[in-house]
Design goal:
heterodimer, A: mainly alpha, MetI-like fold, two-stranded antiparallel sheet, 26 helices, 2 strands, 73% helix, 1% strand, globular, B: alpha/beta, 5-stranded parallel β-sheet, 4-stranded antiparallel β-sheet, 6 helices, 9 strands
């Protein structure tokens, strides 16, 4: 039974990815009997190559992916190196952690509202400093270099990587390593980078690869913040997939393979880069430079980065909220002249329908993911299977979801709620498993031995001892899974075939519109739903075990 | 009701670490002494049925005339106490005791109240275990084991985390109850005073008998 759970989980992780890739492979070479094409040809590739935007789209994918990953990585390490072990560090991690539950799209909308020519930043400096009486005609959001896209990715990936680093710190003997370095006369940042960073990085490599692959191929954030003519390759693939002419699906499939190749190539490049840095770093670490003076610059820089990211997310979300209630709001006023519920009440029926649909899909996918994760962990999943967990996170969604969509079409299940839920499960399962695995293994096995000594069989140990003791971890894993499901854009769109809409697909569909109030309403809903579930997940164990001190966080 | 370790041998990579061939009579304590890492805890793991796969076990374990060598931990009726009380944090004191008490027992509340009484904790059933003192928690842990009606009692350095005054009291409390119920006891310790207080034979994991 437990073994079966492990295999079910592993199959569920690997099979959709492989099937999806297989489903892309045929059409990419012109083969799709369901659409009446049963000969192999290179036509789709010629069509892709004939697209004039190809070079720029590929360059955008590569540059924005590498840039946002490198910047996120550097800032994360800097923040930890400069502040680990201080009171401020606890404050930083507590302030950035909630943004994990925040969908990428909501954070991207918030940032777009903040940095747009008519956003709060421009308003704050106008007209006294800038002289602008009207919003300037500047292409800040959707800039052709993809800088806004990079910024949007960085504000979301730094909190994620920070959490990954936090999880890796106890296994890296970081505090003692840092103490030894300090006692040898090293500065805070330099000592951490030379003594601790290599061990930490070794443990967060897979999450970093996931960030790199995600940044190169993300669709929703690119639709909101990315360039438009041409867009990134991933966005262009989606456009071809959604084209009314089904024949465009062939070149979409070819481009999806191209995107996969691009991601694999850049991953190989990144790994080669790791080698180079490692080789150079050994000499650097042994060189003896103490870097005492560097602290005076780097520590404020780290704090500034954390503060900047926190403000970008916090003010961005506040901006969304204010716009959703705004009546007349002229430039450069910092605050609307009036507030109104007009847009909220106008949307209330649609909001209710979409919220219900979103919650139902998220509940189903997360519930199944939780059951499978427990079964897999109970069966002793570790090691190789743990690496497999990352497969759906490293193979780009845009590379294999078109193939799954094709299968769904052939099977006639596309556009059903259940197919969308199954597609969400592929991405929810890894996050639920990862959230649960550490607390699961940290559980004191002697409690199980004591229970067995009292006559409790394995099932009773699981249900009456281990799961209750892990209530908090289970709740957090559930909230993580729920937030992951709510945030899914591409699986909902492609497998739902436009007939299943969630708050996320509704919100992202508004990206091209200039109706800030409408965007505000939907983006606020998109962030409120997972945050509410997170709040409940933290409250539930506190409520259940309010008379049990041993169940509070130590 | 005795515990017999019949030519028990535990080996790792073909090297024997533990070799014991003894019988522990009802109410008697066998103390196993040695420095940490010598295999004392491995012996206990073998007795409860949780030996890590890296070890191989030869010989047989008999409890009350029944061979239990191949049984799962929950089928052996081997009660165990660790140096931490390991009370379940999500259950009340009474809940912990009820966890140990077998399902079919009539008047559960009465039995639990009596156990609390015996441990000097009358009326504290509804308490959160985290609010008890260290000595109280240890006594609850012992009563929890005794309520499960074990065939033998295994003690893994159970007194080492208690402070000196409490340690003597707790030793007395544990051994008296084991004797009263006629339980064979295996005590694993590196503290000579524990072994002396137990009063039974003292051996090394290699089976060699120590004279105190």
């Amino acid at each position: 039974m437990a073994r079966a759970g492990l295999w079910a989980a592993l199959t569920l992780l690997a099979l959709p990815v492989l099937a999806g890739l297989a489903g892309v492979l045929g059409p990419a070479f012109g083969y799709l009997p369901a659409l009446g094409r049963s000969t192999v040809s290179l036509d789709p590739w010629q069509a892709v190559l004939a697209w004039p935007g190809l070079g720029a789209a590929m360059r955008l994918s590569v540059v924005t992916g590498i840039l946002s990953t490198a910047i996120s990585m550097a800032l994360t390490l800097l923040i930890v190196a400069a502040w680990q072990g201080t009171r401020s560090f606890q404050w930083i991690t507590r302030a950035l952690a909630p943004s994990l539950s925040l969908p990428h799209a909501a954070a991207a909308f918030g940032l777009a509202f903040l940095i747009a020519p008519s956003g709060w930043i421009a308003r704050a400096f106008s007209p006294w400093a800038t002289g602008w009486e009207l919003p300037p005609d500047l292409l800040i959001v959707n800039d052709p270099w993809g800088l806004a896209l990079v910024a949007g990715l960085v504000v979301k990936e730094v909190p994620f990587l920070l959490l990954m680093v936090l999880a890796a710190l106890p296994q890296s003997d970081s505090l003692r390593g840092q103490m030894v370095a300090r006692s040898l006369g090293y500065g805070r940042v330099m000592g951490w980078m030379k003594a601790v960073a290599p061990r930490v990085y070794a443990q967060i490599r897979l999450p970093v690869y996931a960030v790199l692959a995600y940044s190169m191929s993300v669709v929703d954030v690119a639709l909101i913040l990315g360039p438009t003519r041409p867009p990134t390759l991933a966005v262009q693939i989606l456009e071809w997939m959604n084209h009314p002419d089904l024949g465009m699906r062939f070149q979409a499939a070819a481009a999806a393979l191209l995107q996969l190749g691009l991601v694999l190539g850049v991953l190989a490049l990144w790994i080669a880069g790791e080698r180079l840095v490692a080789r150079w770093g050994v000499g650097w670490a042994a060189g003896g430079a103490r870097g005492i003076a560097a602290d005076t610059v780097l520590r404020p820089l780290g704090a500034g980065a954390a503060l900047g990211i926190g403000l970008a997310v916090g003010l961005g979300l506040a901006g969304l909220l204010v716009w959703s209630f705004a009546g007349l709001w002229q430039f450069p006023a910092l605050w609307p002249d009036s507030f109104s519920l007009r847009v909220w009440s106008g949307q209330s029926a649609a909001l209710q329908r979409r919220l219900w649909e979103t919650a139902l899909i998220a509940l189903g996918a997360t519930g199944i993911a939780l059951a499978l994760s427990i079964a897999a962990l109970q069966a002793g999943a570790r090691g190789a299977s743990a690496a497999l967990i990352y497969l759906p996170l490293i193979v780009p969604q845009i590379a294999f979801l078109p193939g799954l969509a094709t299968f769904a079409l052939i099977l006639g299940v596309d556009g059903t709620r259940w197919a969308v839920m199954a597609a969400h499960l592929v991405f929810v399962l890894p996050y639920v498993y990862l959230a649960l695995a550490d607390p699961w293994h940290a559980w004191d096995r002697r409690a199980g031995l004591v229970a067995a000594g009292l006559g409790a069989g394995p099932a009773r140990v699981l249900w009456a001892v281990r799961l209750p003791m892990l209530t908090r971890a289970l709740c957090v894993a559930f909230a993580v899974g729920f937030a992951t499901s709510v945030a899914q854009y591409l699986p909902t769109l492609l497998i739902g075939a436009g007939r299943v809409s969630t708050v996320t697909t509704e919100a992202v569909a508004l990206a091209a519109s200039s109706n800030r109030r409408l965007i505000g309403v939907w983006a606020v809903m998109q962030m409120a739903l997972p945050m509410a579930v997170f709040a409940m997940a933290l409250m539930l164990p506190a409520l259940l075990f309010r008379r049990r001190q041993g169940m509070q966080i130590g | 009701m005795s515990l017999r370790l019949d030519r028990l041998e535990i080996a790792r990579d073909g090297v024997a670490m533990v070799q014991i061939d003894r019988e522990v009579a009802p109410g008697e304590v066998l103390s196993v002494m040695g420095p940490s890492g010598c295999g004392k805890s491995t012996l206990l793991a073998a007795l409860v049925g949780a030996l890590p796969p890296a070890f191989t076990l030869r010989g047989q374990i008999w409890l009350a005339g029944r061979e239990i060598t191949g049984l799962s931990p929950h089928q052996r009726r081997m009660g165990i106490l660790f140096q931490d009380d390991l009370l379940f944090p999500h259950l009340s004191v009474a809940g912990n005791l009820g966890f140990g008490l077998a399902r079919g027992v009539a008047d559960r509340a009465g039995v639990i109240a009596q156990a609390l009484n015996e441990a000097g904790l009358a009326g504290m059933g509804a308490r959160d275990p985290a609010t008890l003192s260290g000595g109280q928690r240890s006594r609850v842990a012992l009563m929890r084991v005794l309520l499960s009606d074990p065939g033998a009692l295994l003690l893994d350095e159970p007194f080492s985390k208690l402070d000196a005054g409490l340690r003597a009291q707790m030793r007395e409390f544990v051994f008296a109850r084991a004797r009263a119920r006629g339980l064979p006891v295996v005590l694993v310790t590196h503290d000579l005073a524990d072994a002396q207080a137990a009063g039974g034979d003292v051996v090394r994991v290699t089976g060699e008998v120590l004279r105190l």
